[in-house]
Amino acid sequence: MITDADTLFASDHKRDAYGFSVRPHHVQRYRENVKIYKEEEEERSERWNSFLEDHAQSDLSPVNGSSEINPSTESDNKYAEEKHLHSDKPGPDSTQGNVGEEDEKRVVRFQIWTAIRPSLRAIEDLMSVRVKKKDGDGEQEAPKLKSSKRVNGNDSEDELYDVEKELELLVRGGAPMALRGELWQAFAGVKKRRVENYYQNLLAADSLGKDIEHADEKGLSADPLAVVEKWKGQIEKDLPRTFPGHPALDDDGRNALRRLLTAYARHNPSVGYCQAMNFFAGLLLLLMPEENAFWSLIGIIDDYFSDYYSEEMIESQVDQRVLEELVRERFPKLVQHLDYLGVQVACVTAPWFLSIFINMLPWESGQAPNQFYFCYTKIVIFKYYVCHSERCSLFISSQSVGCASV
Amino acid sequence: MGSSSGQPEFDYLFKVLLIGDSGVGKSSLLLSFTSNTFDDLSPTIGVDFKVKYLTIGEKKLKLAIWDTAGQERFRTLTSSYYRGAQGIIMVYDVTRRDTFTNLSDIWAKEIDLYSTNQDCIKMLVGNKVDKESERAVSKKEGIDFAREYGCLFLECSAKTRVNVEQCFEELVLKILETPSLTAEGSSGGKKNIFKQNPAQTSSASSSYCCSS
């Protein structure tokens, strides 16, 4: 996890605030803008902090009391400790482990879960109403957002509306990195989604866990499950190809990524594993502990992008057609140019849709739409796509090249 | 990289497609060809493409090279890119046998299904010959496959760049020798795109770049 604000913008500018190496052709621009990024980040932090402070006093009543000390630092320490342990292949000291003799042998502890900081709980509650509990496990039906009185018993609807408005403005400005992971969790309703031990049990189903961890790149391990779980080989292929060279994705990072993707594939076999999910999962792991990342991933893929990544990928195709229509309407010249090149709009936009700009844009801008996703609906992202198309359009008209990879 | 509009910047525009299993090195091959570099790449999501200008003999060529995602489920998405391609490169990894067997099981069938050019030139490329010690598919097998399916054949390494340029050049030479393909690819550079009337309005049929 990256949360240390001081190291966000390293001075050598070889890596950006997220730890990604800055592409050579972006270095110059990054260098020029790094001061602005930094200032913006500070501004964001300030705005969010004052928002949280304002609402902390009136709105918050810690629920489970499990993480009263600043959970951010707590989780950091924990995580750091984890990493430490991993690096010299610890023995069976996974004390938080759930039952199952296999777990004894398991090298890595995947039971990392941290509640988000108390000051974000109001947002969490606000956003959780969107989470549809599918298994009806006794949790009471959440009230509709409009009539929600959960945040504060005395809140009038207007006040609540104001809070939402304010939040919306904040989200538009982006979340500060230190809060981002936790905010995403709040937006995705992670706490409400979470079922105790679910993640662990999904992984425990795999009794040959250790073998898999040492399976070679080609995914041709002797694991009999590999026959059934055909996505396994694909995951293995993609692990080293997910943010290659990122310092967080060392062996331990990749093992975590493997567990996360494996657990998701088992959770939702109709999707299994689709390339592009590795980017989501990897990004989430940079921002939060492993199990939190799992529930966030579920939020993203089960709810926001249901049917985007299934075998047929129906919904992503539908959305692309919609965007194509929009682009046709708004930027006829752009479409004309693409037609001329024999390029379907969809082929330019498919990667946008499928990886939601992760890896598509410089990170600072790539994160903006993700912010929206977590908070809002697809409408916003469509606006973003259209804006992006507009920029492409300008770019193309000015250069008359068109085939540049956008 | 572009020239001012109105000038014919190339004599022919050819569309070339890269297909094959995930992880065989399609994107690396393309990058190696277009930028002379080899890098750790992320998996291709959906499709990607790059442009390369070549001069062969007197002819200025513009290659639009389409790089497709190898994962099975992306095939619904990638199938539409076969249309209008003058050249298709099937890539396998010489160190992974399954990527070779999938060529006849899957990829050759995909071409039959989706390619619209009867005369489209096919090329078989065995990548990663730099890992000679891990080789799992012999050169002879590659040659036999190519003979059976009527393809050109080369072994190469995107990493060491051995034979990389040859792959594309041989393909292009063969395309140039095929009159039906050059007729189709010839008109590209002679139009000023921003003054051109929108020839096609239907989104479904917009894949042909240079039909005339």
Task: Write structural notes for this entry.
The complex is a heterodimer of chains A (406) and B (212). With 406 residues, chain A is an all-alpha fold. Chain A has helices at 24-59, 71-87, 101-105, 121-128, 157-173, 177-188, 190-193, 198-204, 209-213, 225-228, 231-238, 251-267, 277-287, 290-304, 314-330, 332-341, 345-355, 363-375, 378-399. In chain A, 59% of the residues lie in helices and 0% in strands. In chain A, α1 (24-59) runs antiparallel to α5 (157-173). Chain B is an alpha/beta fold. Chain B has helices at residues 26-35, 75-78, 97-114, 139-149, 164-176, 179-185, and strands spanning 12-19, 47-56, 59-68, 87-93, 121-127, 152-155. Chain B has a six-stranded mixed beta sheet with strand order 2-3-1-4-5-6, sandwiched between helices. In chain B, α4 (139-149) links the parallel β5 and β6. Chain B is globular, with a radius of gyration of 17 Å. The model of chain B is unreliable at 187-212 (pLDDT under 50). At the A-B interface, α11, α15, α16 and α17 of A face β2 of B. Chain B: It is a lipid-anchor. Chain B: InterPro entries: P-loop_NTPase, Rab, Small_GTP-bd, Small_GTPase. Chain B: GO terms for molecular function: GTP binding; GTPase activity.
